[in-house]
Amino acid sequence: MSEELLDFKHSAALTMGVELELQLVERRSGDLTRAASDLIALVTRKPFPADIKPEITESMLEISTSVHTNYAPLLSQLLAARDTLVRGADRLDIEVSGGGAHPFQRWYDRQIYDRPRFRHVAGLYGYLAKQFTVFGQHVHIGCEDGTQALRLLHRLSAYIPQFIALAASSPYHQGVDTSFDCSRLNSINAFPLSGRAPFLTDWAEFERFFAKLRRLGVVESMKDFYWDIRPKPEYGTIEVRVFDTPLTVERAAALAGYLQSICAMLMDREEEFTEEIYLAYNYNRFQACRFGLEGQVVDSITGESTPLHLAVLRTLEACRPYARDLDAVPALDEIERWIRTEGNDARWQRETMQSRRSLAELVLESAERWRGRLPVAAPGTISTYA
Amino acid sequence: MDLSFLPDWPPLFPPAVAVAVLALLAAAFGEIAARWLRWPRLLGYLAAGALFGAGGYVLQLLNLEPLPTPTLRFALDFAAAIILFDLGQRVSFGWLRRNPALLGASAVEAGLTFVAVFATMHWLDIAPLPAALIATISMSTSPAVVLALTREVRAQGQVTERVLLLTALNSIYAVVLSTLLLAWARLETRGLLDDYLLHPAYLIFGSLAVAALGARLFHLVAAFVHHDRAVELILMLAVVSIVFATSNALQLSPLLALLACGAFVRTLDRGRRLARSDFGLVSALALVLFFALSAATVDLGILVGAGVPALALALVRTVCKVVAVGALAPLTGIVWRKGIYTGLGLLPMSAIALMLTHQVSQLHPQLDAEAGAVVLANIVVFQVVGALTLLFALRASGEAREAP
After folding, report:
1. Which of A91, A134, A225, B7 could be a cystine partner for A184, CB 3.0 to 4.6 Å?
2. Dist. CA B322–CA B340, nearest whole Å
3. ipTM exceeding 0.95?
């Protein structure tokens, strides 16, 4: 094992990139199907409008955008990638869908994608690896150096509950309503190195921490950390990993724009902080997962308790000036619209389930939504089979 | 001592017990095939049937009366009906609209097979009509083998879906074309031109109409039932029986009617009510009986006399299917390697091909003599070899999800 240091690559501050883990489902039953290698082979015959790669099982793939400075081009790249994927999926008679978890797949049915790293993970974690068939959105934010990255990472932790609640799209898992808006993070909590990153604020310190763990044989690379936010030194970014994959690329892009605006605000208003900021972290995180935008979060410093939807509205107001500089205002408007009208995807999923009464239907409706065809659910239209 | 209350020894059982014994034997042999040899269970069913059928020795040993041939034929036909319905509702015909190249590939695959086999048979001095009959039947893939095997290994993926779709399509071609041949044969003997159009038209549209009515009936009743599996299975059996009996009574094609009925049932299922229901249980039962009974009725001695034409048919059919599907694979959206696997998956033949032969030969016994032996030999061989190539294809493409 080499002992080289983790060089933090310099990036332009506030650049961003999005990774989306997507579900591949059977058109017939809505169950997960194995199609990743076939779909990737098909859509990469011509240059694919984004980066695309297999994930741990054949029912999952990941698309990632290039590095963007603004929301609009990020959205158009995601739209182009989506359209290409949908066309390819049609030729293979499958559907692509967002959502943080598949509502009823059985973890023991999953097959591990044939790659050394995935086989290693599967061997190490056993059934956890297959249960790990959950789907997240990861957003990278560029930082100039490692210390800036770590400071941003810790201060961003206060907004993690907002991100969880806004992106939550995994209310159904393994065939049941979990009562959580985001059940996906519960699956991730099972991994030994999940949760929040340790409180280290200086890159040299972080490098020593990492070297120690590696000497102990606890980790081999940064990939072994499943933290909510983790530094990605080889990209020069921090990576926010608590988002469920939303049901549409529009939502994915809006979340990235919102995150970028918050980061701009935090970088502009430097202030000192201590580990105190994490006092209520796990409590708030649970509230967001369980109750979504209705969850109550407590400020670790002031002790003030706020419902999450209000917290989002306040943050939107606070970071709006920064969004203007970044051309991210449409992203913020979109988020405000969710808060004021539709709510998060978990709400749409529950409403759809109520009217369709079948998890298979829910999956296939979600796939329609991913295509951009079903803008909103019609709440209260309880239709029966006839 | 008066022992007259005891039965005669050995006691005499009704023929139905023969079926029960065959089913037990098939279950045991299927288990042996699966567990010890890691072979498909259906090979065990076939072996049990063959053992049972061979000279009727087992029957004599057990002092059982052999089943009367009409009963046997009916059981076989009905099992085939269930299997075709199952295939129809399993396959995604809408896929052809989204990927028309697949329909093209299917047409080329079947067309090439027909032309090449016909030419070969003609070259081997077989008369045009029997040669065309052989070519027609060789287009088809066995729905029974394909369904049984993909279910058994819980196959999932492109090769699986494509094998199922192409199987349904080439079964349709074979059924339709054999009805056309039937008309052609009548034309030769009676010389009425409108027969050429009228009879096939009646067969095809009549069968489709019966299928559509059956599917409507299915959904009409299903609307009352709230996802009760048992009731759904009963409903399915009832609809299959009705469509089967109606199409027989109206002298339509039960094979086409049942396949179409399955497809309509799925198409009409707007609320995707059946998305999670699975007819696999009934179908599995039908498959066991189907394989065991069909093997019990086949005389293996046919292999000895099959000769050059049968061998030529086997070769030409295999090459056509594998090469056509493999070569066209990239146009349909998968790599050619998976196309080859798909082609290998299309090799199984089974008694459904045989039923097509019977359909024609009932009217033209002399055709059976010429074409029957060639086709039958291939059915016997490719029921086994085709199952193994399909299993190989599913395993090699990574689509089989067998327990390790």
Report:
1. A134
2. 6
3. no
Residue B309 pLDDT exceeds 90: no
Token pair, residue B192, equals: 């009425």
Give chain B's mean pLDDT: 84
Q: Do A41 and B276 touch (CB under 8 A)?
A: no
Distance CA B73, CA B289 (A): 12
Q: What is the pLDDT of residues A199-231, one digit of tens each?
A: 999 999 999 999 999 999 888 888 889 999 999
Beta-carbon separation of A35 and B92 below 8 A: no
Containing A52, the helix (H) or strand (E) segment is strand A51-54
Distance CA B94, CA B3 (A): 69
State how far the Cα of A163 lies from the Cα of A256, in Å rounded to an integer: 10
Residues of B in contact with A95 (CB under 8 A): none
- Residue B5: count of CB within 10 angstroms of its CB: 5
Phi, psi of B64 (to 5 degrees): -105, 145
Query: Which residues on A lie below 8 Å from B92 (Cβ)?
Result: 27-28, 93
Do the Cβ atoms of A162 and A217 come closer than 8 Å?
Answer: no
Instruction: Name the residue among A38, A41, A360 with its Cβ closest to that of B275.
Output: A360
B245 within 8 A of B69, measured Cβ to Cβ? no
- Kindly report the nearest CA distance between residue A203 and chain B, in angstroms: 45
- The string of DSSP letters for B17-73 reads HHHHHHHHHHHHHHHHHHHHS---HHHHHHHHHHHHHGGGHHHHHTTBPPPPHHHHH
> What single letter denotes the amino acid at residue A315?
T
How many contacts does A have with B, using Cβ atoms within 8 A?
Answer: 69
Given a contact cutoff of 8 angstroms between Cβ atoms, the answer to whether A95 and A277 are in contact is no
Strand (E) or helix (H) holding A244:
strand A237-244
A321-325, B74-78, B154-158, B336-340: which has the minimum mean pLDDT? B74-78
